[in-house]
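Appendix C: a fully annotated inverse folding record. The material below is reproduced so that readers can follow the format used throughout the book. The structure is listed first as tokens, followed by the designed sequence.
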């Protein structure tokens, strides 16, 4: 008998909603930066401001809408309707004419995306899993970003991103696909049978995960969330500039040929690594991702040739996604039953809000005096440099030290 009703419908819904949601986020997180860089000659400060504004909106939306979904006792409606409107909002980017308009519309789009994905979808995954299958679910869910990157990279190869018409086509394709997934969700998503609406007032539901008493009762959960934030800061130092770094700084216009094989291998590693967490837990499960990520940073800092850049990218991507799966599984395991929606707010603060504020700001500071290049129209653009990897590694060392101290204290207490 399937555990907790994890039938075929669950896996189909998880795959298509998880994958399409990540495709939309990849376009936002990795290509909106390229869009304003190429179309409007955006600076590092512009890119940082856009990422930070989106992070704030994502956090606020998830806090509010996660609590609302608990109060209503429904996930399906928020997921399906949210994806439909999310897709429509993506299409509007085809008509944007400036950096400021992009930032404003990004915040509007993020509201619908975070409602559907960050709040409802993630609460739904928590509702449907248990301690026996959480690592398996999170392993598959955590490989979605890499698979989506592969899909987006492969699809974008047929477009000339220096032309406005290509961006118009991209936004229509992604927007329509996201909307169609939302429509499909009306027929395939099933809420957890034991999901019940919260009897507390909406105000109490919103504030629940921020109360001192909740913190005292779930100290380890909040500690892991703070460590997850450090992990995310490390990633967000370089991620907004990654494609520009490959294409412009390393002079690798065919960066997809490097990234695609690395992504495929990393996705396979991530899919199976969730089982390591199920078997060995967080302490042992997080070691290898941190080692892979740090090694990838070092190789990418030192490398300019294709082969070492591929190896560094493979290790970086593998460490990033397996780390996400381990942190995600641990956090879901520690969220109190029937409180998953209310905890999506603090989860998104650790996963998106804090990294989205601090990471890009560090990256922009590191690149403040970056080399400038002249474009054909006489304007200038900045070139991200290898110092982003040094900054990312420094934050990763802080994270490793935090986990080591936590493990040491626990051993002493035992």
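Designed amino acids, in order:
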């Amino acid at each position: 008998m399937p555990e907790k009703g994890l039938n075929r419908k669950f896996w189909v819904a998880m795959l298509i909603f998880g994958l399409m949601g990540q495709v939309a986020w990849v376009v936002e997180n990795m290509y909106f930066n390229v869009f304003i860089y190429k179309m409007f000659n955006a600076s590092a400060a512009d890119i940082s401001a856009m990422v930070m504004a989106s992070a704030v909106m994502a956090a606020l939306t998830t806090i509010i809408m996660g609590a609302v979904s608990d109060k209503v006792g429904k996930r399906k409606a928020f997921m399906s309707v949210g994806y439909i409107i999310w897709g429509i909002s993506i299409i509007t980017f085809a008509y944007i004419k400036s950096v400021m308009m992009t930032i404003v519309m990004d915040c509007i789009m993020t509201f619908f995306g975070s409602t559907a994905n960050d709040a409802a979808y993630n609460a739904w995954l928590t509702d449907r899993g248990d301690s026996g299958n959480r690592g398996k679910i999170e392993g598959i869910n955590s490989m979605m970003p890499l698979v989506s990157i592969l899909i987006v990279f492969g699809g974008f190869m047929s477009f000339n991103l220096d032309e406005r018409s290509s961006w118009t086509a991209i936004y229509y394709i992604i927007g329509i696909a996201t909307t169609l997934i939302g429509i499909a969700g009306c027929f395939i998503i099933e809420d957890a049978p034991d999901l019940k609406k919260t009897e507390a007032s909406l105000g109490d539901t919103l504030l629940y995960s921020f109360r001192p008493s909740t913190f005292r009762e779930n100290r380890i959960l909040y500690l892991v969330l703070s460590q997850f934030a450090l992990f995310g800061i490390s990633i967000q130092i370089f991620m907004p500039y990654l494609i520009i770094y490959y294409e412009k700084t390393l002079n690798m216009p065919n960066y997809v040929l490097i990234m695609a094989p690395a992504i495929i291998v990393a996705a396979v590693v991530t899919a199976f690594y969730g089982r390591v967490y199920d078997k060995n837990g967080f302490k042992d499960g997080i070691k290898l991702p941190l080692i892979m990520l740090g090694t990838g940073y070092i190789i990418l800092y030192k490398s300019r040739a294709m082969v070492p850049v591929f190896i560094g990218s493979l290790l970086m991507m593998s460490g990033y996604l397996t780390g996400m799966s381990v942190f995600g599984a641990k956090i879901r395991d520690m969220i109190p039953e029937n409180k998953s929606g209310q905890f999506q707010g603090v989860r998104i603060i650790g996963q998106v809000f804090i990294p989205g504020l601090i990471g890009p700001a560090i990256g922009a500071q590191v690149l403040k005096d970056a080399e400038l290049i002249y474009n054909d129209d006489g304007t200038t653009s900045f070139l991200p440099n290898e110092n982003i990897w040094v900054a990312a590694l420094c934050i990763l060392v802080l994270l490793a030290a935090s986990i080591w101290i936590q493990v040491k204290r626990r051993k002493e207490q035992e």
